[in-house]
């Protein structure tokens, strides 16, 4: 008798495929000239890895309707644990692809670190929004919510780089005051919205149909 794969198994298999595609995509990035303008390239790259996270979340979205973690937990708790697991998977894939592709683009190390922080921050919040909304309000609303959150967060990074610029060596010019003013408010709002929607969507009843 053939065993039906568990949701976690299907999620990991899909994630590995997307991770492999992201790593392969790093190869042509080695051909990008080293003197390419850094800020536009940084933002284009950030948009690309955010899009990867959205596409992977779309691929995994139907799994929010599957039974997760059989055991003594209540149904709402198991659903929430499943949603958190999906968020971790998406965030991990985005983080690894960001590391590889940032290195391929030969960003200065501190700029690679900023890119990784930005990508991870947007990936977990966007995935949380998408999975929570997917279960409660459906696929279309989830895609719209994830895209909107990603656009707002990328815009906040763009605004920071527009105001502060890069360091003399092409690296991250850290300005704590401007970071607090231009980036952290959007990040905090995104985190609150993401946690609220994931909790509401995964623990609440009456989900939409698949």
Short structural summary:
Helix content is 75%, strand content 0%. The protein has 210 residues and is an all-alpha fold.
3D architecture notes:
The protein has seven helices and no strands. With 210 residues, it is mostly helical. It has one domain. Helix 2 runs antiparallel to helix 5 and helix 3 (75-104) runs antiparallel to helix 7. It is globular, with a radius of gyration of 18 Å.
Enumerate the spans where pLDDT stays under 50 for 5 or more consecutive residues.
none
Number of helices: 7
Oligomer: single chain
Radius of gyration: 18 Å
* Secondary-structure element pattern, one letter each: HHHHHHH
Structural class: mainly alpha
Would you report the number of β strands? 0
Overall shape: it is: globular
Q: Write down the overall mean pLDDT.
A: 92
SS strand fraction: under 5%
The rounded distance between the terminal residues' Cα atoms is 26 Å
Secondary structure: elements and pairs:
Blueprint (H helix, E strand, L loop, with lengths): L6 H23 L8 H23 L14 H30 L4 H29 L1 H26 L11 H7 L1 H20 L7
Helix pairs in contact: 1-2, 1-3, 2-3, 2-4, 2-5, 3-4, 3-7, 4-5, 4-7
């Amino acid at each position: 008798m053939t065993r039906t794969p568990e949701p976690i198994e299907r999620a990991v298999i899909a994630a590995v495929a997307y991770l492999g595609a992201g790593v392969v995509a790093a190869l042509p990035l080695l051909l990008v000239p080293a003197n390419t303008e850094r800020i536009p390239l940084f933002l284009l790259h950030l948009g690309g890895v955010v899009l990867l996270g959205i596409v992977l979340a779309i691929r995994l979205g139907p799994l929010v309707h599957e039974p997760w973690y059989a055991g003594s937990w209540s149904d709402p708790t198991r659903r929430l644990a499943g949603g958190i697991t999906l968020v971790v998977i998406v965030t991990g894939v985005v983080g690894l692809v960001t590391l590889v592709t940032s290195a391929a683009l030969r960003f200065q190390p501190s700029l690679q670190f900023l890119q990784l922080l930005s990508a991870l921050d947007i990936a977990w919040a966007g995935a949380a929004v998408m999975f929570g909304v997917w279960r409660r309000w459906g696929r279309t609303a989830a895609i719209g919510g994830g895209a909107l959150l990603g656009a707002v967060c990328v815009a906040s990074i763009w605004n920071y780089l527009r105001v502060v610029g890069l360091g003399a060596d092409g690296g991250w010019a850290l300005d704590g005051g401007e970071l607090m003013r231009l980036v952290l408010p959007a990040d905090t709002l995104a985190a609150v919205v993401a946690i609220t929607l994931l909790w509401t969507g995964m623990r609440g009843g009456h989900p939409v149909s698949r």
